[in-house]
Description:
Helices cover 28% and strands 30% of the residues. By secondary structure, the protein is α+β, with helices and mostly antiparallel strands. The chain has a single domain (6-199), classed as Multidrug-efflux Transporter 1 Regulator Bmrr, Chain A. The longest helix has 23 residues, at 42-64. It has helices at 6-9, 42-64, 108-121, 152-165, and strands at 21-25, 28-36, 74-79, 95-102, 131-135, 138-146, 169-178, 191-199. It is globular, with a radius of gyration of 17 Å. An 8-stranded antiparallel beta sheet has the order 1-6-8-7-3-4-2-5.
Amino acid sequence: MKPLDLLQEHPEFFRALPQPEFIHLDKGKFIIIDGNGSSGTSEMSARVKALYPVAARIRQHYRELGHDFVVPSLESEWWSSSRKPINKIPKEERKWRLMIRMPDFVSQGAVEVAKKQVIVHDKITAAMYVRLESEHEHDVVQMLHIGPWSREGETIKEMRRFIKKKHYVIDGPHHEVYLSDPHTTDPSRLRTILRQGVVA
Length: 200
C-alpha cells in the first residue's frame, strides 16, 4: 500500500503564495518539543535530533500495522511574553516549539512507545520532552518567504502591513514551515512558509 502523504492529502498546510493571504486552516496533530533562545543553539540542535527519531519510530510502528505514512516537513512556532513581532524580540527572550505534523490516527500510546525506544536504543534522552498535541482550527495570514532565514524580517513586515490594512487582530505565535532542506539548498533558494494567527 502506498504511504499516506499529508502533503498530498492536505496540501493547504504546505503551500503559500509569495504575497500575503488570509486562509482558514483545519485542526491538526503534531509531535512537539519546546525550547528557549535563538535558533542554531546547541539546545535547539539537540531537540531537533530528538524529534526526528521519534517521528521515524512512530512511522515504523504504523508501517508494521499497514498504515505507513511519509514524515512531513519540520515546522516551528516562536513567541515571547511581549507582543512584539518575532523579528523584534531579543534572541534570548524567544521561546520556540519544534513540530512535525502527524496523521490523525497517531495515538498517545504510540508516541510514548516511540519515545522510550529512542531513549533506550538511540541513547537520545531529550526524546523524553517530546509530546503529542492537537492544534485547533484557526485563521492565519501567511506568505511564502524565499531566501535566507536572516531576511525573514522583510516578509514579516509585509505580512504585518497586510494584517493592519485588513483590520485583523494578531492572535497566537509566529509559525514557520520549512519546505527546503537547509543542508542541500542554497540559502537564496530556501522556501519557508511564514504564518501568523489572526482574528478576522
